[in-house]
Amino acid sequence: MSHRLERPRIAHMEDLITHVREPNFAKTSLQTFICNNGDPAPGRRLDRVIEEIQIDEAVRRLRPDFTVLAICAYGLSNGPTDDRSREWLAAAAAQAVPTDHEKVEAWRAAYRAFGAKPQRTRPSVDALVRRMPLPEINLVVDAYNTVSVRHGLPIGGEDLRRYDGAARLIRAAGDEPSEEALGDPEIGEVVWRDDTGVTCRRWNWRQCVRTRITEETVDALFLLERLEPLSSDELAAAGDELSGLLAAITPEVRIESRLIG
Question: What is the pTM of this model?
Answer without folding.
Answer: 0.85
